[in-house]
Amino acid sequence: MSQIPNQPYPNPQQPGVYPPGPEALAPEQQRSYGMLAHLAPAIALPLSAGTLGFVASLVVYLMYRDRGDFVRQHAANSLNVQIMTLILLAISGLLMFVLVGFLTYPLVVVIATVIHVIGAMKANNGEMWQPPMTPRFVS
Question: Residue 3: pLDDT band by 50, 70, 90 thresholds?
Answer without folding.
Answer: low
